[in-house]
Backbone:
């Protein structure tokens, strides 16, 4: 009896899981280093937060280029280059002594490397291998984000407390380099199923001598995309959501410590958010496969995120911090799987890299506002209260707007112009 081979798409899912785990797990450790940098250098939180803002902007610009590249070449080369650049950035950040050097190493290098290992490359790669099981496949892959953050944020907090924040950055760099290269070169070697005589989802070929047609590369007209209201609805709404998320990830630990919560416990709250997000990423990926339109799963995730943000306003103890983290984290878990699912559903599978890259640029520009906005508000008012209130209003408005998102045409067969 012949054993059926595992469909290669699931290797892509596994590889994407681990690549996103180290990429986002390491980047979301930034909040752990805010207080040590402030104590050692006497920098304000807006000065420190600017590094995260630059990181997000560079990541966003990089997404414009890696998206179309992914529609042409295997993801392993993009991820390998990203891992090397990001690892170099983390290690060099351990030697910084001025804001400028901080912005160049963490902002520029880590941001550029992260683009090569981010959701545009990983989720788009998964999306090319699945149609019927796309939601669950991307959901599982994006669970790596929560998994990596759960592992790395407490580790960074521990190293920062008992050794130094500089050693913590060196460790993050080493992990990023080793895992990124090994995983990408072993599991992320292939482009799309049709190129290897396979069908999406591992479906069987109906006729023995029939081979799947390899889709030609389709370049989507930027002008056509910019005229599409669906693109702007997704880009603006998700950009504002990421603004909220990044403001929380960068300032949550400092906020908890301002409320007299011990530093390792405060750092662990990031892991709790990601642990809850781990389950949210699976649930919302699975849930979107069972709805006639994934925008309803998106709406549900935003509402849960909104409830968590309201709870954040009243954090004053470890128990209230962890309650917020569980609810907020579960809602946060909807974001990574839903965006590529929504993009593939609206625009088409074979142009997912290009479309997702363009979306990520505008989303990243919005997200880059979050860290610096939090720093400015804290420096001016000595509190994060107004920041959390702004986040509540933003999420409430977006939850309504996203319900207006229509289906429209796909661009898989669009002609180049």
Residues:
């Amino acid at each position: 009896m012949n054993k059926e081979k595992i469909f290669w798409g699931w290797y892509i899912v596994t590889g994407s899981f681990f690549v996103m785990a180290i990429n986002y797990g390491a980047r979301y450790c930034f909040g752990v280093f805010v207080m040590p940098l402030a104590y050692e250098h006497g920098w304000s939180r807006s000065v420190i937060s600017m590094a995260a803002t630059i990181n997000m902007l560079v990541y966003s610009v990089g997404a414009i280029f890696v998206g179309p590249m992914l529609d042409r070449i295997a993801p392993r080369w993009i991820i390998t280059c990203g891992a090397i650049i990001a690892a170099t950035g983390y290690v060099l950040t351990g030697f910084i002594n001025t804001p400028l050097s901080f912005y160049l190493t963490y902002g520029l290098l880590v941001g550029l490397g992260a683009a090569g290992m981010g959701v545009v490359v990983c989720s788009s790669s998964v999306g090319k291998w699945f149609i019927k099981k796309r939601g669950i496949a991307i959901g599982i892959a994006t669970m790596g984000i929560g998994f990596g953050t759960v592992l790395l944020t407490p580790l960074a907090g521990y190293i920062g407390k008992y050794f130094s924040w500089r050693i913590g950055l060196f460790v993050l760099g080493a992990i990023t380099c080793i895992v990124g290269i090994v995983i990408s070169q072993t599991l992320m070697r292939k482009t799309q199923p049709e190129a290897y005589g396979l069908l999406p989802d591992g479906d069987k070929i109906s006729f023995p001598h029939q081979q799947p047609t390899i889709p030609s590369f389709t370049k989507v007209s930027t002008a056509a995309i910019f005229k599409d209201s669906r693109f702007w609805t997704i880009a603006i709404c998700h950009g504002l959501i990421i603004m909220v998320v990044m403001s929380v990830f960068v300032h949550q630990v400092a906020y908890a410590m301002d409320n007299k919560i011990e530093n390792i416990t405060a750092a662990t709250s990031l892991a709790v958010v990601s642990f809850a997000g781990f389950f949210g990423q699976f649930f919302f990926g699975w849930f979107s496969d069972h709805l006639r339109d994934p925008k309803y799963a998106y709406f549900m995730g935003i509402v849960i995120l909104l409830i968590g943000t309201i709870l954040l306003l009243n954090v004053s103890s470890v128990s209230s911090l962890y309650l917020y983290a569980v609810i907020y984290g579960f809602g946060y878990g909807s974001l990574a799987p839903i965006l590529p699912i929504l993009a593939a559903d609206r625009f088409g599978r074979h142009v997912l890299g290009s479309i997702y890259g363009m979306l990520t640029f505008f989303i990243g520009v919005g997200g880059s506002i979050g860290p610096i906005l939090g720093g400015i508000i804290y420096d001016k008012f000595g509190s994060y209260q107004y920041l959390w209130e702004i986040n509540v209003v933003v999420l409430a408005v977006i939850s309504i707007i996203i319900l207006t998102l229509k289906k429209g045409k796909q661009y898989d067969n669009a002609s180049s112009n």
About this structure: The mean pLDDT is 87. The chain is about 75% helix and 0% strand. The radius of gyration is 21 Å. Residues 8-205+217-404 form a domain with the Growth Hormone; Chain: A; fold (CATH 1.20.1250.20).
